[in-house]
Amino acid sequence: MGTNLPSPGKILIVEDEFLVALQLEDILADGGHSVLGTFPDMASLGRLGEAPDVALVDLNLRDGLTGPAIARDLSGRFGARVIYVTANPGQIDAPAATAVGIVQKPFTRQAILAAISYAMSACPDAVRPVELEPLLVNKTPIID
Length: 144
Prior knowledge:
five-stranded parallel β-sheet, 144 residues, Rossmann fold, alpha/beta
């Protein structure tokens, strides 16, 4: 058919809320993606055996505000594109180098799949999903 959908991706979920993680797994599986695993904290990432294409990362995890550091680690080690899935985007102190944006909680199936599709297709500016908020590069205004 005439659709240009990116190939299914290997997706990592970094989320400590069981029901949210389950919802994300269902959305991704229904979208044809492979879920590499769900990790609730920094320590559990040691079990990650395969490089993800995309990581969905919450900020506040079981071990505290470790999501931003986990995102930077996944970006540095694997080059994984990072999508922050959070209700608190202001807590992103230093975004991962490969971060593509933020999907606010509560999210919809469409928001997650559109963000994954965008990340898997090399993030073309012309088709950025409305649901995928851009990262703020500089949150502090410069005062002369």
